[in-house]
Amino acid sequence: MAGSVFGLVRDQGIAHLFGAGPESDAFLVAWTVPEVAATVLIEDAMALLMVPAFSGALARGGGVSGLVRGTLPRLLALLAALTAALMAGAPWVVAALAPGLADPSAAVACTRLTAVTVFTFGLAGYLSAALRAHRRFVPPAAIYLAYNLGIIATFSALHTRYGVESAAAGVAVGGCLMVVVQLPAALREMGSLKKPRDAPHAPRRALGLALLAPVVLFTVSRQAQVLVERHFAAPLPAGAISHLNYAQKVAQLPMTLSVVICTVTFPAVSRALAEGDRDRARRRVERDLTLACVVVLIGTAYVIACAPQIIEVLFQRGEFTSSDTAATAAVMRVYALGLLGQSLVGALVRPYFSTARPTWYPAASMAVGLLVTAVADALAVGRWGAYGIAAGNAAGITVTAWLLLRGLGAHSIAVRARAIVPGLTRTLLSALVATVSGWLTATRMPGALSAAVVCGVVVPAAFTAAAVAVRVPELPYLLATVTRKARR
Description:
Elements: H1 2-18, H2 22-43, H3 45-59, H4 65-88, H5 90-97, H6 105-114, H7 117-133, H8 138-141, H9 143-162, H10 165-191, H11 209-233, H12 240-274, H13 278-305, H14 307-315, H15 322-335, H16 339-352, H17 361-384, H18 386-411, H19 417-443, H20 448-470, H21 475-487
Helix pairs in contact: 1-9, 1-12, 2-3, 2-6, 2-7, 2-10, 2-11, 2-12, 3-7, 3-12, 4-7, 5-6, 6-10, 7-10, 9-10, 11-17, 11-18, 12-13, 12-15, 12-16, 13-16, 13-19, 13-20, 14-15, 14-20, 15-18, 16-18, 17-18, 19-20
Protein name: Murein biosynthesis integral membrane protein MurJ
InterPro entries: Lipid_II_flippase_MurJ/MviN, MurJ
Subcellular location: Cell membrane
């Protein structure tokens, strides 16, 4: 969460210095590279592959040295080749990502700088997976804090001389810092490992193409939603890409917090499955899904209720004008309709890839959702512009979440979906009450800052009251946990 807060500070700095226009659009086209790299190499594919692999090795007796020797050198060679290819092909990459961009030269220069993240993010994601499997969460949690601090420091020092390219250089610096903050802990853990002892109940997880392909395809398809959005937004008036980006960055904070729950418990689920305890894994996944829904829907209610006030407080200064605030807030409200789907996809996909048995079902579900997004964007962009693109994103990811929830029992852990859906319905009702309460409060407050602060109290309080009234599951557990931590 500290990394996310500094991510907002980063976006505030970019908005202040470059506004929402041609310069920021050029940077955000190049920003597609670290966005895709982070999803594939840190958050999804690398974690979905390597956390279960490391967890399985530890379940066999604690040694991962053979796994490291067999995977890391090949990974680094592949990452280096991809980085070089991306730098050389930057003009073609920009043309494919944003074919309607008026002046692509700045985007090409920025893309060559951000291409470094393919190598650094890949190594950072590998180290992060190893540390999470060892229940070491602080160094992996620090990577986005280090990343964003590197970006902020670089463009703060260099923007007067290099313009928007200073922000792209900061991305390259931040990627290197991701590796630096994890390396000492990773070397300590790997240096103390024992030779593995094979356990009869823990089958080896072979990292071959059969396992790699469905994970990578799912991850790339999920991130391709951003590519589809920017493809349709590029011909719109200057600033449309920036409005979509700022709206997403703010609205995704509740989703990030909800998925943190599953990120921390993912190694526990993988270890339980490696040890043959499927019932323990099922209980953990069911609780994760319920808690993730509660957290993301509270955040969604807050975002929808006072979107203009949030954007004004965060971004309206310097080159970011009141018209940019109004456009971004409207887009953010539409985009927020898909936050529950985003959170559920992040939570549901982990059980699918926790076992050694590869499955194509998540990739197929994501492909269907991506198709829905593309079709909806194509139909809506001409009439509603950026708002239609945001609506297409929400529709596509919601379809994917529904498909993943529907197929979980047949393809992975036998989660009792019928037991989860009634609780989810009650949680949605509580979120609706909280949204109305927050909106009524925001419209009666005299200033943006006071409205954002007061709504930050009113929305959770209204949600809690409604949730108690309709008996939302897991709320007593969540409240007890918060109370216990507050006492500590």
